[in-house]
């Protein structure tokens, strides 16, 4: 049972906007982290040629360890802008600090709020005022109700262009990094008008599960998926084990294309 007024969120510059919402299935792909201009532009080309319509890439990386690669920051945003110029793909990238919202909004077409910041209400209010659509990930220990209420902090500041993203939750099961709560998709679609997509890469933490979990997302009626891709995952500075290579990305894109039209 879907919410009666499901909305579509449009991402990108006027005239080149990409829809996320009912009746379509949006493939968002790109590197977990922006490492170099070459790696980012090569990945963006792989994404576009496979059929992705939005490029993802982290310039500010919130990592479990403060000693791990933290991203290139503003230099990474500039690389993302050049990848958009090279491919025409709009960009989604994470913002982790309210003070960085203006500079991220200057470069990005969509602002991502990561799992660790789902309940960072000051940050949510700041992105609510930034005038860009928001990709809003579920907190890894948040209930669906807490997630939807947190989305209200963005909406309350006048920004209704919010796409929810189920990215796995903490459970007792260690076989995957998180447990993809696939039932969150129809639960959210019944309770909220907002589009909902799935991140199988961060849910599983394992490349071999990304295509099967994407198929599950398609089957359950998600509005899209966001996946990590890297031209050479073995050398990736961030989350290499979950990054798709070109061949797996094309397999995923074929599964997406075989979709019956959804409403
Ligand atoms: C990401 O998408 O780059 C990311 C860090 O995801 P999450 O916040 O879901 O862990």
From TrEMBL:
This is 3-deoxy-7-phosphoheptulonate synthase. The keyword GTP-binding does not apply. The keyword Nuclease does not apply. It comes from the Bacteria. The gene is aroF. Residues 17-256 form the DAHP synthetase I/KDSA domain. Transmembrane segments: none annotated. It comes from Nocardioides koreensis. Keywords: Transferase.
